[in-house]
Design brief:
The chain is an alpha/beta fold. It folds into 3 domains: about 1-40 and about 170-275, Glucose Oxidase, domain 1 (3-Layer(bba) Sandwich), CATH 3.50.30; about 45-160, Orthogonal Bundle (Enzyme I, Chain A, domain 2); about 290-590, Alpha-Beta Barrel (TIM Barrel). It has helices spanning about 55-80, 85-100, 100-105, 105-115, 120-135, 140-160, 175, 190, 210-220, 230-235, 255-275, 305-310, 335-345, 380-390, 390-405, 420-440, 455-460, 460-465, 475-485, 500-520, 530-540, 550-560, 565-575, 580-594; strands at about 20, 25, 30-40, 180-185, 200-205, 225, 240-245, 250, 295-300, 315-320, 355, 410-415, 450-455, 470-475, 520-525, 545-550. The strands form 2 sheets. The chain has an 8-stranded mixed β-sheet with strand order 1-8-7-3-4-5-6-2. Helix 23 packs antiparallel against helix 24. The longest helix has 24 residues, at about 55-80. The radius of gyration is 26 Å and the shape is globular. The protein binds phosphoenolpyruvate and magnesium ion.
């Protein structure tokens, strides 16, 4: 047990004031645990809890890094040219003094011992606390010293990163199992590092319901709330928190009564989930006998296990860009990518795997520091990026094609709007095939190629797509963003993000109809597909393929099993004739009751 547990408030004991924050719900369920605050700087390093028996080794790792930086500063000092400006020597002296100060040389060691943080995390936690103190200093000269402290910390971090181990997992499962991450923001790349940890919830100050961070939280199937302005300042380290992921509410330091109510709700939800589990092998067929295909959205091949567990008919969206993120901007090689695609294909045991080509940019930058575009969502994103970087695109296409020798693979191209983009993409697929033929590599010559319909221009120019493509997949997250001109990541406009806006519904309906008329498959792979409140509406529009996070699949299946198309269709037609938001919202609610 970490040594500072005694100072923690007991749940329900609440010696500190309880308060409630409201934000945007992004992931269902209730989490009860303790706050682990991540400062922005801390997000750049790995953070994990160190097992009791490894604590002293971790302390030594930090001590050795501090000693090495001391030696480096000494060498710098010794090697100063004679004519070097005196400020340079003084500057090295200041850094050496900072390094020897107990605030840096001892406090982080205590943090490792008491909180079980790894060395990098412990150092940054201390630096963030010191920085906050410096911000309050009035004397501008002293306030400036904050930068020196950060530079010293960076030196130590560089040494530490050279000695970093692969993540050791804490043996203290109970402690780790209760962590709720509280941060100003978490990028999708940062989220990746939480995938294997047992964090039970996320709370962020910013973010929208369909930001990629929110999407990853949903795919991890843990409660999360974003757009919770002020959360990272108001919530303190180790505060007890309840996240009500359905309502987008966070209760800090709850009373015993509130805690009990939420524990009860947690138990009810767990029972409902268990019941849903029985539907795993039941085919998704409506009451009137229409067969529906339920596919999974995945970020990494490991997610296939959850997809299979939920009884998915295949993968409808493999967001391949997650293989490219969080790796110091080194692009994965063809072989590396091939191995990952092959893993997914094999894990799905003959079911189709739809691999979307690199959708980098906007809120999924390859490298956070390179984000310079004024309007990244409208910039060099997805297929635009790939066509501008043909070598990266061709490498990925060859890797995907090679994986098609191991099972059914479909290629999905994101963000298409122009005929020439479709033609160039198809030409590059042919080029990748030719290269593989020359090498004598096996692949599926008839691999299906589909287009994401996620830009209004695409939905309004469907003949251009159905003529050239084997299937369509509607990306409602971006389709809503671009139709309503609201940034899906920006919580200040999150209230305008409305899947039921008549313009959005018209575009979706037109796409489904055009695909079916042309005899090609149409799926929805945006978040609308996993929202049970919209299942009947989409069925009524004619949708027969839904792709969603594995965690949502059985609830959607249950809704399908209880749906009767004969009743749903007339009501849907009524909805599609209306341009009045209230009428639409009411009619969609009535659909649920039919
Ligand atoms: C979408 O835009 O709906 C989609 C599925 O793609 P992403 O969320 O990855 O942009
Ligand atoms: Mg998209």
């Amino acid at each position: 047990m970490p040594g500072d547990r005694s100072r923690l408030r007991s749940p329900g004991g609440a010696p500190v004031a309880s308060f409630t924050l409201h934000g945007i719900p992004v992931s269902r369920g209730i989490a009860i645990g303790r706050a682990h605050k991540l400062a922005p700087a801390a997000l750049d390093v790995q953070h994990y809890l160190v097992a009791e028996e490894l604590l002293e080794a971790e302390v030594r790792r930090l001590q050795e890094a501090l000693a090495q930086v001391h030696r480096e500063l000494q060498t710098l000092w010794n090697e100063l040219p004679k004519d070097a400006p005196t400020e340079l020597g003084a500057f090295i002296d200041v850094h050496a003094l900072i390094l020897s100060d107990p605030m840096i040389s001892e406090e982080p060691l205590d943090i490792i011992r008491t909180r079980h943080y790894n060395a990098e995390w412990a150092l940054l936690t201390q630096i963030d606390e010191l920085s906050a103190q410096f911000d309050e200093i009035e004397d501008p000269y002293l306030r400036e010293r904050k930068a020196d402290i950060q530079q010293v910390a960076e030196r130590v971090l560089k040494v530490l990163l050279g000695t970093a181990q692969t993540l050791p997992v804490s043996g203290d499962d109970d402690f780790q199992a209760q962590m709720i991450i509280v941060a100003h923001d978490i990028s999708p790349a940062d989220m990746l590092q939480f995938r294997d940890r047992s964090f039970i919830g996320f709370v962020t100050d910013v973010g929208g319901q369909n930001s990629h961070t929110a999407i990853v939280a949903r795919s991890l199937d843990i409660p999360a709330a974003v757009g919770m302005a002020g959360a990272s300042t108001l919530i303190e380290q180790d505060d007890w928190l309840i996240i009500d992921g359905d309502a987008g509410v966070v209760i800090a330091n709850p009373s015993a009564l509130v805690l009990e109510q939420y524990r009860e709700r947690q138990a009810v939800a767990a029972r409902a989930r268990k019941k849903l589990g029985k539907l795993k092998k039941t085919p998704a067929i409506t009451k009137d006998g229409t067969q529906i295909t339920l596919l999974a959205n995945i970020e990494l091949p490991d997610d296939c296990a959850a997809a299979m567990e939920a009884g998915a008919n295949g993968v409808g969206l493999f967001r391949s860009e997650f293989l490219f993120m969080g790796r110091d901007s080194r692009i994965p090689s063809e072989d590396e990518q091939f191995e990952q695609y092959k893993r997914a294909v094999q894990a799905m045991k003959g079911r189709p795997v739809t691999i979307r080509t690199l959708d980098i940019g906007a809120d999924k930058p390859l490298d956070q520091s390179e984000q310079t575009a004024l309007n990244p969502a409208l910039g060099l994103r997805a297929i635009r990026y790939c066509l501008a970087e043909p070598q990266i695109f061709l490498t990925q296409l060859r890797a995907i094609l090679r994986a098609s020798a191991f099972g059914k693979v479909r290629i999905l191209i994101p963000m298409l709007a122009h005929a020439f983009e479709i033609d160039q993409s198809l030409a590059m697929i042919e080029q990748a095939k030719a290269a593989l033929r020359e090498r004598g590599e096996k692949f599926d010559e008839d691999v299906d190629v589909g287009a994401m319909i996620e830009i209004p221009a695409a939905a309004l120019a469907l003949p251009m797509f159905v003529k050239r493509m084997d299937f369509l997949s509607i990306g409602t997250n971006d389709l809503i963003q671009y139709t309503l001109a609201i940034d899906r990541v920006d919580y200040e406009v999150a209230h305008l993000y409305n899947p039921l806006h008549p313009a959005v519904l018209q575009l979706i309906s037109m796409t489904i109809a055009a695909g079916h008329k042309a005899g090609i498959d149409v799926a929805v792979c945006g978040e609308m597909a996993g929202d049970v409140k919209l299942t009947r509406l989409l069925l009524g529009m004619g949708l027969r393929e839904f792709s969603m996070h594995p965690a949502q699949l059985l609830s959607v299946k249950q809704e399908i099993l209880n749906s009767d198309l004969a009743r749903i269709m007339p009501q849907t037609r009524k909805i599609m004739r209306s341009m009045e938001p209230d009428v639409i919202a009411d009619a969609v609610e009535q659909l649920q009751l039919m």
